[in-house]
Design goal:
heterotrimer; A mainly alpha; B mainly alpha; C mainly alpha; A: mainly alpha; Four Helix Bundle (Hemerythrin (Met), subunit A); B: mainly alpha; 0% strand
Chain lengths: 202, 467, 94
């Protein structure tokens, strides 16, 4: 069927709209990845050394957390499609929980950096040299923007859960759940690239 | 007027005209109204999102205007917000940059909405291969909006971060690279020029066949050139930076790409002329504006090639030659197309006709004034008068006076035109359903169209009248 | 555009994808911990691309979505890489 009148619901269209929005999000981060690649190219050695400052373990733990949460949100969609609303809600709850744990880790990680005097504009950072300034500038900007997206994603998931409880998302009408899930996967997708670029490559 | 006031003037003029007027001008005004009708739909697919986009637009305007009246004074960096000055100046940059960011968000939502609408809501039988050309141009524009705007969004966020946190991204003292800012900025802002001009070309492609009373010449070529402009136009941004200290390799690469993007534009002009050739031409106001568009666009386009070649660009870069080129394309091109669209669709939108005599007088005054205003700037620029200077050398005096007189004529023409349009919309004689004998779908509904456009969704499976 | 019944991904498929993602995470951590010089960047990015593809195809259902989405997504990636490439035309030869 090609045409849809106003009264008719068009899930395919909402999905297309969501994907188009995801494209813009990818390119938003893309701008930062361009900046990262240029400054890494200009300051290869300093980036290499500065990367060792970051705590690999926290990075790995957060990666595992996000990957798992991405699976649980995908499972919540499967559960909804199969009509298992309890499981669906459970999976969303697990996802939200994992997201919160991720943010907590991030909070402590940033906190330690601040204690060490590593934050944008700090006197200590200025002594370290240009490469380090760029590395930590990008680190805070990119993980910060990512964390912001996590917060938005969590908010969306909470709204989704409320809608499920109210019956506004049902096994025959789950476009909002699907699109909220897509947003959450986007957050995961970005992290897949942030993780090696900041924590691993040194 | 002192130097600082002058700097604020050209900056705020740029910000408001580019982000508030020209980018949303054609798509938001005529796209929202006619895109659904032309594809045989009752509305865009996400009406609420459309409303949100409008609220963001208003919020963005208010934010930009805030920068004028609050502490620090109006911004003075030029609309390009070039780093490092944009985070060092004491003027009120933050609201201006934030406003541009919000307007960008609004623009993204509009593009998203239009693309989805075109994909999902076409009437039966309305295929991509027989869609009206205005719709095609909106489609191409939508993709540029989606692909380019996020880059400027993040760039503006980085400028804000730079101002408040002193991260150093674009600060040479901290290891940043200001040229990288220029790259990021133009990755959006060059395609933004195509966001402005593509819908204008779409309007012209509707008007010319209607008044030549024959089908458009080379429909497929125009569609292909629309998409080619959208794609190639994305990769030419660094021709704004030939004198910024880029590598020579980048200079010739971007120069080459810039010349490539001229080809599809020329194809369009060729097709418009070929459509008029041996047509049964009916001289009406929209057609006059469209012809004016072609004339001014050609001058703007050809001088664009001067700027696209590295050697001449080094000579005329940052002179009033650039100012003249840009205004020929955007004001002469997009501005004329906007007026053409207004005169073409006003009878449909309001059901009433304007006074043809005054509309013609308005156009003629505009056209003369425009050329008197901007053509001297080409000469001045070639002689070396820099732009964005509040004063000029004595040798440039005469032409500057000519230019100023031109601006008065131009303003008179615009006032006549706009007053005439408003009077027509209010008290003009009834226009009827199809005053121009147009063949696209908007002419099959009453003027003005009913709230949901169509009682019955049209079925075009058996006809071929879509374009 | 196919408007048939939506594809439902099995729980087991999703679990297997997560398993592969975790294995790949382990792989990228171990590869980058041995010093491969410039190759460690390449390796890490290749693995990241692989992981992203898995997430896109299965978690985000791109594999079962319309051609339009697949093509336009590819276009985004291609455009992004071209932009990086063209930007480096400046920085590589400066």
């Amino acid at each position: 069927m090609e045409t849809i009148t106003n009264v008719h619901r068009d899930d395919e269209a909402s999905k297309l709209g969501m994907w188009l929005f995801i494209f813009t999000e990818i390119l938003l981060f893309g701008g930062l990845f361009i900046v990262y690649s240029i400054y890494r190219f200009n300051n290869a050695v300093a980036f290499h050394l500065a990367g060792e400052e970051l705590n690999d373990t926290i990075g790995i733990i957060n990666t595992v957390i996000l990957l798992t949460s991405s699976m649980t949100v995908a499972m919540s969609l499967t559960a909804m499609q199969k009509g298992n609303i309890r499981l669906c809600l459970g999976m969303i709850a697990v996802t939200v929980l994992l997201g919160l744990v991720f943010l907590t880790n991030k909070y402590f990680e940033w906190g330690i950096k601040f204690e060490h005097g590593l934050y944008p504009g700090s006197a200590f950072l200025k002594e370290l040299g240009h490469g380090d300034i760029m590395f930590f500038g990008l680190y805070f900007m990119m993980t910060g923007l990512h964390a912001l997206h996590i917060i938005v994603g969590l908010t969306i998931l909470v709204v989704v859960a409320v809608f499920i409880r109210k019956g506004r998302i049902r096994p025959d009408k789950y476009a909002f759940l699907e699109n909220g899930g897509l947003y959450w996967h986007l957050v995961d997708l970005i992290w897949i690239f942030l993780f090696p670029l900041f924590y691993l490559i040194h | 007027m002192g130097p600082q006031t002058y700097n604020s003037f050209f900056t705020v003029h740029g910000i408001i005209m580019i982000f508030v007027i020209v980018i949303p001008g054609l798509p938001a005004v005529f796209g929202n109204f006619f895109l659904p009708i032309m594809i045989g739909a009752r509305d865009v697919i996400f009406p609420k999102l459309n409303l949100l986009s409008w609220y963001l637009y208003v919020l963005g305007i208010l934010t930009v205007l805030t920068s004028l009246f609050t502490f620090g004074g109006a911004p003075d960096t030029g609309w390009t917000f070039y780093a490092p000055y944009s985070f060092k100046t004491t003027t009120n940059m933050f609201p201006a940059v934030l406003g541009a960011f919000i307007l960008g968000f609004s623009s993204i939502l509009t593009g998203l909405n239009f693309i989805t609408t075109i994909h999902r809501m076409r009437a039966p039988g309305m295929k991509f291969s027989n869609m009206p050309l205005f719709v095609w141009s909106i489609y191409g524009t939508g993709w540029i909006q989606l692909f380019a705007t996020p880059i400027v969004g993040i760039t503006l966020m980085m400028v804000i971060a730079e101002r408040f946190l002193h991260i150093g991204f674009f600060d040479p003292a901290l290891g940043g690279d200001p040229v990288l800012y220029q790259h990021l900025f133009w990755i959006y802002s060059h395609p933004a020029v195509y966001i402005m001009i593509l819908p204008a070309m779409g309007v012209i492609s509707e008007i010319i066949p209607t008044f030549a009373r024959k089908g458009i010449f080379g429909y497929n070529a125009i569609v292909a050139s629309t998409m080619a402009i959208a794609v190639v136009g994305y990769f030419v941004w660094a021709h704004h930076m030939f004198t910024s200290g880029m590598s020579t390799t980048a200079q010739f690469t971007f120069s080459l790409l810039t010349f490539l993007v001229a080809i599809p534009s020329a194809i369009k002009v060729f097709n418009w002329v070929a459509t008029l050739y041996k047509g049964s031409i009916r001289i009406e106001v929209p057609l006059i504006w469209a012809l004016g568009f072609m004339f001014l666009f050609m001058i703007g386009g050809f001088t664009g090639l001067f700027l696209g070649s590295v050697a001449t660009d080094v000579h005329v870069h940052n002179t009033s030659f650039v100012v003249a080129h840009f205004h020929y394309i955007i004001f002469g091109g997009m501005g004329s197309a906007f007026m053409a669209a207004a005169h073409y669709w006003l009878p449909k939108m309001y059901g009433r006709m304007y006074n043809k005599f005054w509309a013609t007088v308005g156009w003629a005054t505009f056209f003369i004034g425009f050329n008197v205003l901007y053509f001297p700037m080409f000469i001045l620029g070639y002689q070396g008068m820099p732009r964005r200077y509040y004063d000029y050398l004595g040798q440039f005096h005469n032409l500057n006076v000519v230019s100023t007189i031109g601006s008065w004529i131009l303003a008179t023409g615009l006032i006549i035109t706009i007053v005439n349009l408003i009077r027509g919309a209010r008290n003009g004689p009834k226009a009827g359903m199809n005053p121009w004998e147009g063949r696209t779908l908007e002419w099959t509904v009453p003027s003005p169209p009913p709230p949901e456009n169509f009682d019955v969704i049209p079925d075009l499976t058996s006809t071929s009248t879509a374009h | 555009m196919s408007e048939g019944k939506a594809h439902i991904t099995n729980y087991s498929t999703l679990a297997m994808v997560l398993g592969s993602l975790l294995v790949l995470t382990w792989a990228t951590v171990s590869i980058t911990s041995i010093n491969l010089g410039p190759w460690s960047v390449t390796a890490a990015l290749l693995i990241a691309l692989l992981k992203a593809t898995l997430v896109l195809l299965y978690f985000m259902h791109l594999k079962f979505d319309s051609k339009l989405l697949k093509i336009s997504f590819t276009a985004v990636i291609v455009v992004f890489f071209l932009v990086i490439l063209l930007t480096f035309f400046d920085y590589l030869f400066r």
